[in-house]
Amino acid sequence: MSRLQLALNVPDLDEAVDFYARLFATGPAKRRPGYANFAIEDPPLKLVLFEAAGSESRLNHLGVEVADPAAVREHQARLEGDGIEASEGSGTCCYAAQEKVWIDAPDGPWELYSVLADSPTFGEGATTPTPGAGGSACCASASASATPPRT
According to a count of CB atoms within 10 Å of the terminal CB, is the N or C end of the chain lower? Predict the structure, then answer.
């Protein structure tokens, strides 16, 4: 199982969850304060919503969710073999323990990750997303060399 991830900054989480639930005919897979995600089967998409009322950008970041940590490592080796740096970024982010790497693309960051387990906290040292940060608080601390997600 692999699917594209689209992480969006939204001004009103309740309104966005209602809209996307109707658009994709499925409810959120996870809902927490300031955060929601949808695991959509058709099309295969992980839609992530960060409540960020004052954000100047709708796009937070892009990613690819893969089945397991071995797939993350295989992609990392392939990318680095092709001369593309893939920085370690594993840890807790978006209410989940994840194994991941960050890729700094010419047009912004991508993450390639596998979810290991659910988490009661948003990220490293945070219990909820930082208001207005577009959900990037845990993601920014997870990768020192890759560009963190835009807010």
Answer: N
- Helical (H) or strand (E) element with 80: helix 69-81
CB half-sphere exposure, 24, CA atoms < 13 A: 20
In tens, the pLDDT along 26-59 reads 999 999 999 999 999 999 999 999 999 999 999 9
Cβ proximity of 136 and 151 under 8 Å: yes
Closest alpha carbon to 30 in 19, 22, 15, 40: 40
Other Cβ atoms within 10 Å of 146 Cβ, number = 22
Lookup: tokens for 134: 């577009």
* Predicted TM-score (pTM) of this structure: 0.81
Q: What distance in Å separates the CA atoms of residue 138 and residue 79, rounded to the nearest whole number?
A: 24
Question: In 3D, which of 94, 20, 11 has the Cα closest to residue 51?
Answer: 11
* CA atoms of 49 and 51, how far apart (whole Å): 6
Peptide bond into 120 cis (omega under 30): no
- 135/151 Cα distance (integer angstroms): 8
